[in-house]
Amino acid sequence: MQNNFLLKLCVTITSLSMISSIKMLLWHLQGHTAMMMGALRGMGTLWRYRRETLDEMYRIGAQSFPVVLLGGLFAGIILALETGHRFESFGAKTLVGHTVALGMVRELGAVITGLLLAARTGAKNVSELGSMQLSEQIDALRANGEDPVRSLVVPRMNASLVMFLPLTLVADISGILGGMYVASTSLQLDPSFYWNSAMTGLRIKDIVVGFSKPLIFGFFIATISCYFGLATSGGNTGLGRSTINAVVASSIVVLAIDFVFTKVVWELL
Amino acid sequence: MLEDVCLRIAGRQIIDRVSLTVKQGDVAVFLGPSGAGKSTLLKIVLGLWRPTSGKVTIDGNDITSLDDEQMHDVRRRMGVVFQGNALFDSLTVQQNVGYFLQRRSAFPKEAIDRKVEEALAFVHLQGQGSLYPDELSGGMKKRVAIARAVVSNPDIILYDEPTTGLDPINARAILDLIRKLKARGTTSVVITHVLKDAFTIGDAFTLINEGTVIAAGSARSILSSQHPFVAEFMSDMLSQPPMPHAFALARQEAA
Ligand SMILES: Nc1ncnc2c1ncn2[C@@H]1O[C@H](COP(=O)(O)OP(=O)(O)O)[C@@H](O)[C@H]1O
Ligand SMILES: [Mg+2]
């Protein structure tokens, strides 16, 4: 009897909190969709805000280079180590190059770049736009007839759309080179042999799928983080909350889109 | 100007049936304690919040029914000085002041530069255009914000707590600027909770508390109001405050 009551109480509380978080989710989804549409409609202002866009490209792109390089490198090294020894045990270590190249180009390069940039550019966008919102700079823009979506969100979105692809390429290449280092040092595989196996393993389809992901990732990371930035309220705690929401939401979206690509798009192509 | 305006945010009644009128050329003061809804009222006038019900008319145009494009034309005639100044911290003083002119701009660059110089001279900041907001004192930031509001020659300027957080000398300088603009024929709306400042510059007053108008009109009609909140809010001004003891002592010794 007592236990039954406690159980019901727990279920009620859990379902109430789930309902409220689903309500929150729908609320954010609606807000994000509206802003995304505004940003897409405003994409034509690229030339007008070229300076802002270039600035963002530098800060999203050039400044993320080292992080992405290291991320890709370690992913490639780990991939080569994990698969190499297993392959070696049944005498197929020549497949390492093939595996690393395929893994990096099709999945890991894009996902690692996506996750790193979800954190890096996501946090940057939220804190910039969030503090502008809190200090009434966004109000000042709107009060002077300037649409913050066009002047702040669109340049960041365009910059992400342009820069995510070359960054993914950097991750892919540094991953494959990392794998090559492991192959030659701990598996005694000749680098040129590794390289051959890596390059012949790649098909056009792998490359198309691997390089269309970053475009989608960039789009969602930029719009999600800008949305949470503009929706910030409630002082410094509110800014912290927005940053967490944005980084978590864009990371989840990166993984979810990756799944969709692997499962659906791959089969369609 | 405002008629029966109500605003609910997230189920809370922030503004409740506020009606008030601001006469052209006046310095209209909105008085009230913090949290009364003064800033929210200002944002309603700017069209940043759309009221849940009621009408906001500016020169006979109801702005609550305007779309974004039409709203821009109305906003172009208004300048605003936000409480936290809302300066863009990645831009210099000069770029801050010229920012919106440049954005809208039908003007050539030289004309914008000249207008920016004029605005900076108006607030006594000539030659400081290359500094960044971070390098300025509170009073200077406020003056830059005023320069940004006046640079486009608006008919109406709205100030949100322009003297809050400033030392008495800087606060007086700001009030002088507001008075100078009144002499040019600009209509001003000044939000404040500082009674002394309010009665120094104001022509008409609206006392607001918890989203409703408590009393409105000239200084005299505010003072003759029987509402208990008026007495409570004004008690500092009405009674002769005793000089702080240490201050009185020091003054005696000095004399
Ligand atoms: N974006 C918002 N969401 C919810 N409540 C708000 C928001 N902005 C202001 N409020 C509430 O409205 C009331 C009036 O705020 P405000 O207009 O800033 O007061 P004032 O400027 O007179 O100090 C406050 O109680 C505040 O908590
Ligand atoms: Mg306020």
Give the % helix of chain A. over 70%
Taking pLDDT < 50 over at least 5 consecutive residues as the criterion, the unreliable ranges of chain A are none
Q: What count of helical segments of chain A does DSSP give?
A: 9
Oligomer: heterodimer
CATH topology of the domain at 52-77 and 107-170 and 202-268 in chain A: Tetracycline Repressor, domain 2
Number of strand segments of chain B:
10
What is the molecular shape of chain B? Answer: globular
Order of SSEs of chain B, N→C?
Answer: EEEHEEHEHHHEHEHEEHHH
SSE sequence of chain A, one letter per element:
HHHHHHHHH
Report the sheet with the most strands of chain B, covering strand number, pairing sense and barrel closure: 6 strands, mixed
Shape of chain A: globular
CATH architecture group name of the domain at 52-77 and 107-170 and 202-268 in chain A: Orthogonal Bundle
Order of strands, widest sheet of chain B: 6-7-8-3-9-10
Runs of chain B in which pLDDT lies below 50 for 5 or more consecutive residues are none
Percentage of residues in helical conformation of chain B: 40-55%
The biggest beta sheet of chain A is recorded as: none
How would you characterize the overall build of this protein?
The complex is a heterodimer of chains A (269) and B (255). Chain A is mainly alpha-helical and 269 residues long. Chain A has a domain at 52-77 and 107-170 and 202-268: Tetracycline Repressor, domain 2 (Orthogonal Bundle). Chain A is built from 9 helices and no strands. In chain A, helix 2 runs parallel beside helix 6, helix 6 (148-186) packs across helix 7 (191-201) and helix 8 (204-230) runs antiparallel to helix 9. Chain B is an alpha/beta fold. Helix content of chain B is 41%, strand content 22%. Chain B contains 10 helices and 10 strands. Chain B has helices at 38-45, 68-75, 93-104, 109-122, 138-150, 168-183, 195-201, 219-223, 228-238, 245-254, and strands at residues 2-9, 12-20, 27-31, 53-58, 61-62, 78-81, 156-160, 187-192, 204-209, 212-217. In chain B, helix 3 (93-104) crosses helix 4, helix 3 runs parallel beside helix 5 and helix 4 (109-122) packs across helix 5 (138-150). Chains A and B meet through helix 5 of A and helix 2 and helix 3 of B. The structure holds adenosine-5'-diphosphate and magnesium ion (MG). Residues 38-39, 83, 160-161 of chain B line the site of magnesium ion (MG).
